[in-house]
What we know:
This protein is α+β, with helices and mostly antiparallel strands and 276 residues long. The protein has a domain at 113-274: Rod shape-determining protein MreC, domain 1 (Thrombin, subunit H). 36% of the residues lie in helices and 28% in strands. It is built from two helices and twelve strands. The chain has helices spanning 2-27, 35-108, and strands at 116-124, 132-135, 148-151, 154-162, 167-171, 178-183, 189-194, 208-214, 224-227, 239-248, 254-261, 270-274. The strands form two sheets. A six-stranded antiparallel barrel has the order 1-2-5-4-3-12. Strands 6-7-8-11-10-9 form a six-stranded antiparallel barrel. A hairpin with a 2-residue loop joins β3 (148-151) and β4. The longest helix has 74 residues, at 35-108.
Amino acid sequence: MFQNRRWKIIILFCVFFALILFLSYRANPSSEASWIDRMSYRLVSPFSTNLHRVYHWIGNKIDAVLDASDLQSKNKLLEKENQRLKQELFLLEEFKTQTLQANADYEKLNLKKSEAIPARVVSFDVRSAYQSILINVGEKSGVKVNQTVVADGGLVGRVIKVAPGYSQVLLINDPRSQVDILEKESRARGTLIGKKKSLRLSTEYFSTKADYFSVEAPLKKGQLLLTTGQDGLFPKGIPVGTLEKIKRDSRGLFWQAEVEPVAGLHQLEEVLVMKK
């Protein structure tokens, strides 16, 4: 009951005060402020000042949020641009490496750039019985079956299949491969034959063997083997590999030897396809 009377008194006071303000304004149209105007200003002024400060504070906060959102968007764009530039840099570095490798192979084999087609190895046959690779050049680039493939200054193999955009290369360590060879110093001739091995993750898996060297030939470990050019497949004088373990065959008629290829067959990335 007391609470209801209290609210009624407050409401009546507010109405009365508002009426006085209205009458004061109507009765005093001059530029001079009445005592009620001055009192009203004094009562409202602190609230108005604080309200103005709150308005500016809220405005600053909103601007800060918008600036942060804009900055976040810009950061995302910069991150994308950074990733794109990193990818371009990586591709440029790869292209530089490929170019340097190809130039080194041209020099090691005294080849002109018009005499060979640079290629990249795109896949490797990991079957235990056979060894071949796929390269990213084919008929469109002028590749043909039986063209010689080299890398690291040594023989890699020959092209056995050609498609418009890629080719398959039979490696010299494949058991289907045979290369007519000679030892550089004694000129003793033999045959390089691929070795059939079970799959093992070692460089020995990529070695080959030399057979049919005359027992009269003075073979020694470390001697270099070259292509003879007389098998109708490979040009003459291409380094093939070095002699490792040497022994007589079961009949004692020929030397046999393990051969370490000059070309790193276990880590091929870039090769050259010789046009002739």
